[in-house]
Amino acid sequence: MTTELTTVDSRGQPIVWPVTPYYRPGAATIDVTTGVGYPKKADDARRNPRVGLLFSDPTGSGIESGVRVLVQGTAEVDDRDLKANRERYRRESREKVPRVSEWFPPGPLGALLGWYYERIYIKVRPERVFVWPDGDQTKEPLIHDSHVEEVRSGHSEEPTEEHASAAGGGVSWEGRIRELGQRYADAVLAWVAPDGFPLAARLPVSCDESRRLLRIEAEPAGLPVLPGRAALTAHSHAPDYAWVQSFQVRGDLIRDEGGWALVPHRLVGGIEMPDESTLSRYRQNFGKSIRFYLRRRRYLKRRAG
Questions:
Q1: Which of 2, 140, 181, 304 is a plausible cystine mate for 18, CB 3.0–4.6 Å?
Q2: Which architecture characterizes domain 3-304 according to CATH?
Q3: Nearest-angstrom CA–CA distance, 248 and 232
Q4: Are 180 and 206 in contact (CB under 8 A)?
Q5: What is the pTM (predicted TM-score) of this model?
């Protein structure tokens, strides 16, 4: 039902959000989407096509094995025909996540939500696939289409990329951060590998309140963890998508005497449909809707130019 898409922006900051994957057997790509009102994922993938897809949350899928899969791939951004994309999205989302169509009002008010329904597709061609059959990312993964020893050591025959330096800046410790380790026992950590492709793992987390750090309570095996810019994303949804919640903390990944930790610099909320009344949902998302509507206008103007 969901995959965690990691893109890397122009500053070398990995950004990871849950999205809905679309794939049919035999297809050359795994496709995900973003709305024209919030096109950053697509803009970043266009600028840097090396992306990652982590399949780590089986909620609603019927998969009980616990398997987790990380796909590193090359992205193509498709916004050539927004009308066709909108029709495709309506068709596929109704098929896969029918409840999404109930999130927004019908009629004229719903017509104002082009920022959501007009879609940009990000088509990911797999380059390397990591598989953890039982979902335990502290165990060595099965690796397809790669030299295993290169991945383990963090050295590759591919040219290494300049690794972005730590972002630095003040520590952000907003109230919602405390959900990590309490409401959310684990979260998705994303960082950039030596070859420039993003890596991601779902790992147990906790808050070190006294030091204003987010502790990563386990280390993934077989993946080279590097200090520097990173993101930590928590998300959850009902099996039928009746409600959805997510947020992300961006900061610097460091290693100290307690192991790996994230110094939080910024908390970003995702598009959420909480388990509340319809009126409460509209009220909570009204400000975001206005921003996304204006961004849609800017995006279409830029695209036309």
A1: 2
A2: Roll (2.30)
A3: 6
A4: yes
A5: 0.88
